[in-house]
Design a protein that fits this description.
The chain is about 35% helix and about 15% strand. By secondary structure, it is α/β, with parallel strands linked by helices. The two termini are about 15 Å apart. The longest helix is centred in the first third of the chain and has 18 residues. Strand 4, helix 5 and strand 5 form a beta-alpha-beta unit.
Length: about 200
């Protein structure tokens, strides 16, 4: 019989974009469903920590002048604009209740996918990880793109926790979960994931 540590040895949890500018009402990139999932994201992180699952904090941190931002968003970084998730800004901070603990890894991305132009794949491969679990915002953009890239990179199992991810509306969220299911991505609830062995 496998120990708990052995059961989860090849799993990592990605927590994506749980930052104030995305989650809090009034934030320049506010995702309407973001605030409601904070307790479940907190619970997923605690579950992972208690099982020895590595937690990887994936965040956006942009140059305040917008030089590393997608072209379609650069107008938000011009003078007198909000400059979302600029490096060192309050809006780039994680929401209350979430914090990076010693030994946990913070990965900065500048595009939707956590894999695009980062070293996430090499980092988790060095850990021996072949199963990824994803929580955070927002489902049709960063969650979906990261999950699809993980499938393309042949991770053995990709899981998106349905009630620890969110979009602007429930309909958008559910439609994207449906699409992800169709390519083999698991979409359990937090409770279902916590009862599973991966």
């Amino acid at each position: 019989m496998n120990t708990v540590a052995e059961m989860y040895a090849k799993t990592a949890l990605l927590v994506i974009d749980m930052q104030k500018d995305f989650v809090f009402p009034g934030g320049p990139m506010h995702v309407k469903g973001g605030q409601t999932i904070v307790p479940n994201v907190v619970a997923a992180v605690e579950f992972a920590r208690n099982r020895g699952i590595p937690v990887i904090w994936v965040v956006r941190e942009h140059d305040p002048l917008g030089r590393d931002v997608e072209l379609f968003r650069r107008h938000l970084y011009s003078p007198d604009k909000p400059k979302p998730t600029s490096k060192g800004s309050v809006g780039a901070d994680l929401v209350d209740g979430l914090e990076i603990k010693d030994g946990e890894y913070k990965l900065v991305k500048t595009r939707f996918s956590a894999f695009f132009n980062t070293h996430l794949h090499s980092y988790v491969q060095a850990l021996g990880v072949d199963k990824l679990v994803i929580a955070g915002v927002q489902t049709p953009n960063c969650i979906r793109q990261t999950a699809f890239d993980a499938v393309a990179l042949d991770y053995r199992k990709v899981t998106v926790i349905a009630d620890a991810t969110a979009a602007a509306t429930t309909d958008i969220h559910l439609a994207n979960l449906f699409d992800m299911n169709n390519v083999g991505i698991a979409t359990p609830t937090l409770e279902e994931w916590c009862r599973s062995d991966d």
